[in-house]
């Protein structure tokens, strides 16, 4: 442990103990605290560009400075410019929180409606695969017939992905339930823009669709037009 120099001891004996001001964690926030430097037991490093003051009481106060920088402020200060108070409030408290999550920590789970880095939107969990499902941020530009919609989705190259498809009946219902968080849907109930195709056929000439004003699902002719929102 680095010890204060003899100059520091001489300065302390002639001028009294220096005071140190910090912000220290208290409940959900940070409170200003002032204490004497004689209460400091040691300085320790706690990561890149992070260090801590360890008090004799055992309290650790994180500081947004490297170990070397904090050590110099505590033990090798310049008496010609440093006053009787060392103010560390701007590098303690909220400022001393880690800059980024630990690499070993699992990334936070996305919430429905969150925009992903690739521009897609997290839509929820697919009932078909039990895996995360993502959607485009907007409907297709035009309403389409059933077969046109399936062909469009199969050829879609968007947001760096080519594995798009028209949602199944169950997946479409997930989009409906999460429509407010996802956004961009036509919820007027108008026909055809307020109805959305699913990829689930009913009879040979029919397939399931859903009205996004109230969630009503019904089957109707594949030759009719409806809106389309692709998922992957």
Biggest sheet details: 3 strands, mixed
Shape: rod-shaped
Domain module tally: 2
Q: Report Rg.
A: 31 Å
> What is the structural class?
alpha+beta
Count of helix runs: 5
Beta content comes to: 25-35%
Strand order of the largest sheet: 2-1-6
Mean pLDDT reading:
87
Q: Let me know the number of strands.
A: 11
Low-confidence stretches: 1-15
Q: Kindly, what is the distance between the CA atoms of the first and last residues, rounded to a whole number of angstroms? A: 57 Å
Give the H and E element order.
Answer: HEEEEEHEEEHHHEEE
Helix content: 10-25%
Kindly describe this structure.
With 232 residues, this protein is of the alpha+beta class. The chain has two domains: 6-96, Roll (PH-domain like); 121-221, no CATH class. The protein has helices spanning 6-15, 67-75, 146-155, 169-177, 179-182, and strands at 19-26, 29-36, 40-47, 50-55, 60-63, 85-87, 121-125, 132-135, 195-201, 206-211, 217-221. A hairpin with a 2-residue loop joins strand 1 (19-26) and strand 2 (29-36).
């Amino acid at each position: 442990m680095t010890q204060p120099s003899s100059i520091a001891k001489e300065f302390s004996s002639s001028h009294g103990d220096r005071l140190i001001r910090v912000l220290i964690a208290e409940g959900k926030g940070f409170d200003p605290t002032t204490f004497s430097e004689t209460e400091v037991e040691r300085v320790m490093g706690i990561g890149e560009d992070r260090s801590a003051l360890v008090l004799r009481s055992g309290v650790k106060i994180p500081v947004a400075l490297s170990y070397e920088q904090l050590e110099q402020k505590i033990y090798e200060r310049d008496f010609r410019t440093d006053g009787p108070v060392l103010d560390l409030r701007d590098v303690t408290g909220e400022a001393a929180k880690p800059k980024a999550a630990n690499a070993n920590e699992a990334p936070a789970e996305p919430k429905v409606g969150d925009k992903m880095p690739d521009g897609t939107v997290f839509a929820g969990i697919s009932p078909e695969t039990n895996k995360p499902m993502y959607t485009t941020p907007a409907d297709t530009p035009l309403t389409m017939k059933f077969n046109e919609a399936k062909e469009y989705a199969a050829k879609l190259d968007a947001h760096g992905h080519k594995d798009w498809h028209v949602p199944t009946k169950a997946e479409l219902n997930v989009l409906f339930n999460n429509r407010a968080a996802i956004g961009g849907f036509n919820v007027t109930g108008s026909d055809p823009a307020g109805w959305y195709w699913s990829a689930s056929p009913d009879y040979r000439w029919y397939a399931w669709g859903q009205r996004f004003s109230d969630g009503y699902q019904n089957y109707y002719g594949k030759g009719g037009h409806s809106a389309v929102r692709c998922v992957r």
